[in-house]
Every structure is written in C-alpha cells, then in structure tokens.
Design goal:
Number of strands: 0
Strand content: under 5%
Number of helices: 10
Radius of gyration: 16 Å
Order of helices and strands: HHHHHHHHHH
Number of domains: 1
Shape: globular
C-alpha cells in the first residue's frame, strides 16, 4: 500500500493540474503542474530519492508548457488527454526497455534479492503495462468527455491491481 502511495505522490503535479484546469485557464493549470513537478523533482533530487517517473512527469508538463506557449488553441482544449498520453508513452517505453517504471517504487518495499528476482520483474512488467493501458484509457476518457464515473473507475481498477495484484501473483507463484 505504501508503494502505491509513493507512486501517487509522483502524480501530485497531475492532481494540481486537473484540479486547476476546471477553474482557471489551461495556461495557468499547466504552469502550475509544471511548477509543482519541478518542486517535486528538486526536492527528491536533493533528498537523493528521485525516480525516473517523477522526471517523466516533469517532462510531460514541460512539453505541455511549450505547447501551450506555441499553440494555445490546439493544446489548451486537449491538455488533460495529452498529459495522460504522455504518461502512457513513458510507461510503454519502460516496458519495451524492460525497465518497468513501477519497479522503482516497489523495489523500496522489498529486500535487494527479491527486487532482482524474475517474479519481481514480471509483476512490475505487468503493472507497468497495465498502467500504460490505463493512462491511455484515461486520455481517451477525457478526450471523449466520458465523465467522472468512467475516469474514477479506471483509476480504481489501477489502484486495486497495483495494491492486490502483486500479493496475488506471489501467492500463485508459491
């Protein structure tokens, strides 16, 4: 459970952005998301605990900031789907490189030898691929204005899979 919340902390800039975009301009929301991502990365870098996913979140918000500056009429209306598409692209890339992004967060919860096991790697490959799909579904849900029930449903599925999936997989492996 702690691992799930560590990963969600990395998404705090997204929460700020999505909350603000409902009330202020997309430029302010994107700038705020970028600023929070920058603070998160600076703090985590200072503490020696920065994760690649936190850097990816910063990169997504940096790309959105450049996009809103160069083409506000194009980027503004689809900023949320673009953010989720960026996270999905990052997650897919980590799976293709066989360096699943979820392992950075879950490795802290397990001893070193467990973190190097084939089961650990397999579980994290599955979780990273699942989140790539969920981020893509969130992008589509926002693009299609599917509503809160759909978006919350997608997040709840991801949360349950992230929290209970590894435990279930370890039990099945024994």
């Amino acid at each position: 459970m702690k691992t799930f919340f560590r990963a969600k902390f990395a998404l705090f800039p997204l929460a700020v952005f999505i909350t603000l975009i409902a009330y202020v301009s997309s430029t302010i929301a994107i700038t705020s998301g970028f600023s929070v991502a920058l603070v998160v990365c600076a703090w985590r870098l200072y503490s020696g605990q920065i994760k690649n996913f936190e850097i990816a979140v910063l990169a997504v918000f940096a790309a959105l900031a450049v996009g809103i500056f160069l083409a506000p009429g194009l980027v503004g209306p689809v900023a949320i789907p673009l953010a989720f598409a960026g996270f999905s692209a990052y997650a897919v890339t980590t799976v293709l490189l066989r360096q699943p992004w979820t392992s950075e967060f879950s490795r802290a919860a397990y001893p070193q030898q467990a973190g190097d096991s084939p089961l650990f790697v397999r579980i994290n490959m599955i979780l990273s691929a699942l989140w790539a799909l969920l981020f893509l579904l969130l992008a589509l849900a926002h693009m299609l204005s599917a509503g809160l029930i759909v978006t919350y449903g997608i997040v709840v599925v991801g949360a349950f899979a992230s929290i209970f999936g590894p435990r279930w997989a370890r039990r099945m492996h024994r």
